[in-house]
């Protein structure tokens, strides 16, 4: 095969651009345009969707790395279910994050309040995504994936990711064979199946069934709790439609978090605390909410006032199965990832042993192989070493500093680290972790963004989705009711950019060509 992906120019790139744009609109590989575009529209509300940034070709990705990520996902699911069951461990984590992180403290208070009166729902749902980059020690060594982070709340792009895989499959059969510069026709590329939408929806459906029968006489439903003005709405829509069915029909509603307490309430009388939802568009109907799937609530911006925290509290104390619960959300902090990855002293059992059933201990090495160096920034021995690295003008260039935040745009990179640390009180440093940068070998590709093509070196981030439903109380047998790998995401960014968020405008959607 000639060089892949091929460099294309002139009429060929124009044609491919048109084909991709049309396919994207026709298949919902789309986002809402930014407010500025909507405002400039002569007919407000006319432009509802625009094609998402995407690579023209699926990026080459080492097969061993893809298989490594797929292989460990179910163990990761079990691990995070188990961490979420371990309140003692999480209490310690929240303590170590410290009081300077008001958001994590406020979140933890929600859990403590509900714990005091007792939880009425023991099942917990996780729609997880473990993110990786390729690491290669030297040109002669095998590439491996190293984990960037593990997401336990609002892990996005499962919807758009399945569509991107479909787009690239379509192009490889219908369009690439027509390119003069290449021989990448049908059968020349190995494009793995991506069941992210079906997989994630199956997780929600499992929880919907496991909730049992409605006890209030109202039909059951699933609520997607969302941010107001969400631009990444179509990603969520793909999932909503899949959950709604066919084959079985499941009522699914979108509810903006800011309106949660206005349209939901707990059932009166009795200890059941069933969550009841009356859709504003169907005021004569009431549903019993079986599953609350959160695509919001992961950062301080979603909690502008005490009312928002009350809304989170109402959901947490209700009988609905939460995806995620507060405990599961806290399990997904970068602090937890650091504690798992930081080696323990000689003679001590690895922290991982605490969470995995003996049957999974064999998989321990597989998990550890995905870890990269992560340090605390506290006053422990490891923390003091990390502080030295972080403040050193040369050493710091190999690191990224992360607060306990989600959603992109929160990290501090390389040479900016010392100045950042000096700009905040030293007592706040332990709310951050220091992580070695993973530096994947760049590949070349062409990105189509806002109608324009950009060619050059790109860096890919793999995400593997996992779904897990478990009982919070069953710690002995781990209580896992459902545990599946649920497809993948490939996000790609220019190799000059630190962050790769698609929604944040840094990266683009991609899919995998196995090499
Ligand atoms: P968030 O929860 O906000 O998505 P991440 O830990 O995923 O936070 O960091 C955001 C982005 O920063 C990642 O998508 C990746 O592009 C980059 N990044 C984070 N950690 C590393 C790392 N160790 N090596 C290289 N890039 C990283
Ligand atoms: Mg994250
Ligand atoms: Mg991330």
From TrEMBL:
Broadest EC class assigned to this enzyme: ligase
Residues where Mg(2+) binds: 149, 151, 406
Residues annotated as binding substrate: 129, 153-156, 230-232, 236, 295-298, 491, 502-503
Record has ATP-binding as a keyword: yes
Family: Belongs to the eukaryotic GSH synthase family.
Keyword Ribosomal protein annotated: no
Keywords on record: ATP-binding, Glutathione biosynthesis, Ligase, Magnesium, Metal-binding, Nucleotide-binding
Coiled coil: none
Gene3D superfamilies: 3.30.1490.50, 3.30.1490.80, ATP-grasp fold, B domain, Glutathione synthase, substrate-binding domain superfamily, eukaryotic, Glutathione Synthetase, Chain A, domain 3
Name of the protein: Glutathione synthetase
Note describing how the cofactor binds: Binds 1 Mg(2+) ion per subunit.
Obligatory cofactor(s): Mg(2+)
Molecular function per GO: ATP binding; glutathione binding; glutathione synthase activity; magnesium ion binding
Residues that hold ATP according to the record: 149, 334, 402-411, 413, 435-438, 461, 493, 499
Pfam family, one: GSH_synthase
Domain spans labelled Glutathione synthase substrate-binding: 221-331
Reaction equations catalysed: gamma-L-glutamyl-L-cysteine + glycine + ATP = glutathione + ADP + phosphate + H(+)
Annotated metabolic or biological route of this protein: Sulfur metabolism; glutathione biosynthesis; glutathione from L-cysteine and L-glutamate: step 2/2
GO cellular component: cytosol
EC annotation from Swiss-Prot or TrEMBL: 6.3.2.3
NCBIfam families tied to this protein: glut_syn_euk
């Amino acid at each position: 095969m000639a060089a892949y992906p091929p460099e294309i120019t002139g009429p060929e790139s124009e044609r491919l651009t048109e084909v991709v744009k049309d396919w994207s609109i026709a298949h919902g590989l789309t986002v809402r345009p930014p407010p500025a575009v909507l405002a400039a529209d002569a007919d407000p509300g006319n432009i509802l969707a625009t094609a998402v940034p995407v690579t023209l070709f699926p990026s080459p990705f080492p097969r061993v790395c893809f298989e490594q990520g797929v292989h460990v996902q179910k163990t990761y699911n079990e691990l995070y279910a188990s961490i979420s069951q371990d309140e003692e461990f999480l209490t310690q984590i929240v303590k170590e994050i410290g009081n300077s992180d008001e958001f994590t403290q406020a979140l933890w208070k929600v859990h403590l309040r509900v714990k005091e009166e007792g939880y009425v729902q023991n099942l917990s749902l996780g729609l997880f995504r473990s993110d990786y980059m390729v690491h290669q020690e030297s040109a002669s060594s095998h590439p491996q994936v190293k984990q960037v982070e593990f997401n336990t709340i609002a892990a996005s792009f499962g919807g758009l990711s399945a569509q991107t895989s479909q787009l690239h499959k379509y192009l490889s059969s219908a369009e690439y064979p027509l390119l003069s510069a290449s021989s990448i026709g049908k059968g020349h590329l190995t494009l793995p199946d991506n069941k992210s939408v079906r997989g994630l929806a199956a997780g929600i459906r499992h929880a919907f069934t496991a909730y049992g029968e409605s006890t209030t006489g109202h039909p059951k439903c699933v609520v997607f709790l969302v941010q107001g003005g969400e631009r990444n709405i179509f990603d969520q829509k793909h999932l909503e439609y899949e959950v709604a069915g066919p084959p079985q029909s499941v009522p699914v509603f979108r509810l903006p978090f800011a309106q949660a307490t206005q349209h939901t309430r707990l059932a009166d009388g009795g200890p059941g605390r069933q969550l009841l939802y009356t859709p504003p568009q169907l005021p004569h109907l009431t549903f019993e909410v079986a599953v609350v799937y959160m695509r919001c609530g992961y950062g301080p911006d979603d909690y502008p006032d005490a009312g928002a925290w009350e809304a989170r509290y109402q959901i947490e104390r209700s009988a609905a199965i939460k995806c995620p619960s507060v405990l599961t959300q806290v399990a997904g902090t970068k602090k937890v990832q650091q504690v798992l990855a930081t080696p323990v002293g000689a003679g001590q059992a690895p922290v991982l042993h605490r969470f995995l059933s003996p049957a999974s201990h064999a998989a321990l090495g597989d998990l550890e192989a995905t870890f990269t160096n992560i340090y605390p920034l506290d006053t422990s021995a490891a923390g003091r070493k990390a502080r030295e690295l972080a403040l050193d003008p040369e050493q710091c260039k190999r690191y990224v500093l992360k607060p306990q935040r989600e959603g992109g745009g929160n990290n501090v990179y390389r040479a900016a680290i010392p100045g950042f640390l000096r700009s905040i009180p030293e007592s706040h440093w332990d709310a951050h972790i220091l992580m070695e940068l993973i530096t994947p070998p760049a590949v070349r590709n062409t990105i189509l963004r806002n109608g324009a093509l950009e060619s050059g070196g790109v860096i890919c981030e793999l995400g593997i989705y996992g779904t897990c439903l478990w009982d919070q109380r069953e710690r002995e047998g781990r209580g896992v009711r459902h545990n599946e790998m649920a497809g993948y995401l490939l996000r790609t960014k220019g190799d000059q950019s630190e962050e790769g968020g698609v929604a944040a405008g840094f990266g683009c959607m991609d899919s995998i060509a196995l090499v």
